[in-house]
Design brief:
Blueprint (H helix, E strand, L loop, with lengths): L3 E8 L6 H10 L4 E6 L7 H11 L3 E5 L13 H20 L4 E5 L10 H25 L2 E5 L11 H11 L4 E6 H5 L4 H7 L4 E6 L19 H11 L4 E4 L5 H9 L2 H13 L4
Parallel strand pairs: 1-2, 1-8, 2-3, 3-4, 4-5, 5-6, 6-7, 7-8
Helix pairs in contact: 1-9, 3-4, 7-8, 8-10
C-alpha cells in the first residue's frame, strides 16, 4: 500500500456545496474522502450516502461526532459509556458509507484545564474506551483512530503520551489519527511524527501559524512541510494523508491556478520517499 491523498467531505454545510467543492479536490489529486457531517443540521444516513455517491471518490472513513456529550475520557462513567455506544454507532455508519475507520476525539474542551487528579482519571477512562471500541471494531471490521488535539483538551494533546496510551492498551483495530495542525500548536510537527511510535493509522493534514487551529492549506502556514514529509517516509507511513482544509471553492480555484497541485505533489513525494 502506498500513501494516497484524500480530502474531508463536508456534508450539510451551506458554504461547501459538494458538487462545486469536491471537484477542486479531485483536481489536486485527491482519491478518497472522509465524511464529516454538520452535527447541527438534520442530516440523515441516506443524505450522507447520497452525498458520498455523488463525490465520485470512495469514502474511506468517517469523522465521528465530537463535543461535550461525546467524551470517551469523561470521569462520569455513564457519560463515558454513552460516548462509547455513540462511537459504536458511528462505526456502523462508517461501514454503511463504504469506509472502515472512525476518527475519535480523545476528550472534550477544557480551556481552564483540569486538576492532576482528574487528568489521571481521564487517562484511565480513555484507556477503557479504547479497549471497548477496539473489541467492537474487531467484531465489526472497523478501526478507531484517536486524534491528537489542541492544547485546550485535557487528554490527547500530547502525541507521545497518546501513542503510549494506545501502545499500553494494545487494543485491536485502534491507532492514532495524527493531526498536523494540532501538533503544530504544541511543538515541532516532524518531531511529533517520530513520537507516534508506530501508532499512526490516519493523518489529517492542514497548516497554521502555531497559535490557532485555522486549517490553512499545507505550505501556507508555518509548518516545515518538507521536514514533516521526510519524517513520514522515515517512519514508513503508508496510509491516507487527508486534507482537512475548508476553503471556498473560489479560493481553491485561485490556489490551483497558482500551482498548489505542485506543492502537494512534492509533499506526497517526500512522504513516499521518492523526492530527494
Amino acid at each position: 500500500m502506498t500513501i494516497q491523498l484524500g480530502t474531508v467531505a463536508p456534508i450539510g454545510f451551506k458554504d461547501f456545496p459538494p458538487d462545486r467543492w469536491l471537484p477542486c479536490l479531485r483536481r489536486l489529486g485527491c482519491t478518497s474522502v472522509q465524511a464529516y457531517r454538520n452535527q447541527h443540521a438534520s442530516i440523515t444516513r441516506q443524505d450522507m450516502i447520497d452525498t458520498i455517491r455523488a463525490c465520485r471518490m470512495p469514502c474511506d472513513s468517517l469523522h465521528g461526532v465530537f463535543g461535550e456529550e461525546y467524551d470517551p475520557s469523561a470521569p462520569d462513567e455513564q457519560a463515558r459509556l454513552f460516548a462509547v455506544e455513540t462511537y459504536k454507532s458511528e462505526g456502523e455508519l462508517a461501514l454503511a458509507l463504504g469506509g472502515s475507520l472512525v476518527v475519535v476525539h480523545c476528550s472534550t474542551i477544557r480551556h481552564e484545564g483540569v486538576s492532576d487528579e482528574e487528568r489521571a482519571v481521564r487517562v484511565s477512562q480513555l484507556e477503557r474506551s479504547i479497549r471497548e471500541l477496539g473489541e467492537f471494531g474487531k467484531a465489526r471490521g472497523v478501526r478507531y483512530a484517536f486524534e491528537n488535539l489542541p492544547p485546550y483538551h485535557p487528554v490527547g494533546w500530547d502525541v507521545g503520551e497518546l501513542a503510549d496510551i494506545l501502545r499500553r492498551v494494545n487494543a485491536p483495530c485502534t491507532g492514532m489519527c495524527f493531526d498536523t495542525g494540532h501538533a503544530h500548536m504544541v511543538g515541532d510537527v516532524a518531531d511529533a511524527v517520530d513520537r507516534t511510535a508506530g501508532q499512526m493509522i490516519y493523518l489529517h493534514l492542514s497548516d497554521n501559524d502555531s497559535q490557532s487551529d485555522s486549517h490553512e492549506m499545507p505550505t501556507y502556514g508555518t509548518i516545515d512541510m518538507d521536514r514533516m514529509g521526510r519524517q513520514l517516509a522515515a517512519i514508513g507511513y503508508t496510509g491516507t494523508i487527508m486534507l482537512e482544509v475548508f476553503y471556498p471553492a473560489e479560493k481553491m480555484d485561485e490556489l490551483i491556478a497558482q500551482g498548489l497541485g505542485d506543492r502537494l505533489a512534492r509533499l506526497l513525494a517526500l512522504a513516499r520517499g521518492t523526492q530527494p
